[in-house]
Amino acid sequence: MNMKKLFLCLVMTAVLASCSKPYVIVQIADAQLGFTASDKCKAEGREFDEDVSYELSYLRKAVAKVNEIGPDAVVFTGDQVHHPDNQVEWSAFRTAVSAMSKDVKAFHLPGNHDVRIWENDVDMETFEERFGKGSFEYEDGKVKLVGINTNFIKHNNYAENTQFEWLEGVLGKKKGQTTLVFGHHPFFLKDIDEEDGYFQIQKNKRKIYFDMFRKHDVDAVFAGHLHDNAAGEYKGIPSITTTSIAFQIGDSSPSIRVITVKDGNVSTELIPLD
After folding, report:
1. Which stretches does DSSP call E strand in 218-254?
2. How many domains are there within the chain?
3. How far apart are CA 97 and CA 91, in angstroms?
4. 203: CATH
5. Can you give the residue range of the structural domain that contains 40?
6. What are phi and psi of 99, to 5 degrees?
7. 16: in domain
8. Is residue 60 within 8 Å of residue 88, measured between CB atoms?
9. Is residue 18 exposed (0-12), middle (13-18) or buried (19+ Cβ within 10 Å)?
10. In Å, what is the CA distance from 219 to each residue of 75, 197, 214, 222?
11. Does residue 174 lie in a domain region?
């Protein structure tokens, strides 16, 4: 084999290998440092003692698991801490996450506990100081990741319309990629027509967003907030809610979700931390 043919053979082999290589994302939901101690202190009628040890132990496990898996990206889908202005919680979160491999692309989305909320006002200042804008778009070859600030949607914030226009523009630029959308609040848990509740986006908004997702061929939507697992779909688009890595409300176990994209197909697996 002459050198030219050898070179072409090596190039084709590299291209084929690249095409078949899976793209792996880890979703980490609701570390919410300080949650359990805060609830305990409140029940006992005393001030929060800033004990974050329970959630911190699971966050460290999640980071260790990320380093073991070696994904391409990690998406934190909100509620990094329980109190948006508590420096002990933020410092513990930052220190634990700093142990994650620098080879992994990390994205942080705001949960309702990461920001100050009064009625329909969402104050993003403390979150943006730490992580920048509360939404993102990222492309890596055949995969497109989009993160949205669902606080704007859930709380009817004035910024929702601006974000909606941005989101449609971002999704409209899709070029044959597998596209995944991430947020904190689930649009729905099992059925798009289920009644309104604390955890879901309002019923009158769900189809507006999912019709946009369908128009632009979104492959799946991921959220947290529930502290339990749930799944449904609308017009072929899965809506997947991932439980907390720490405190559970339902029967789920502390877990991270591994999302794998291979040859345009999306699969997910829950990895327990206990």
Report:
1. 220-223, 230-234, 237-241
2. 1
3. 10
4. 3.60.21.10
5. 23-272
6. -80, -5
7. no
8. no
9. exposed
10. 16, 25, 8, 10
11. yes
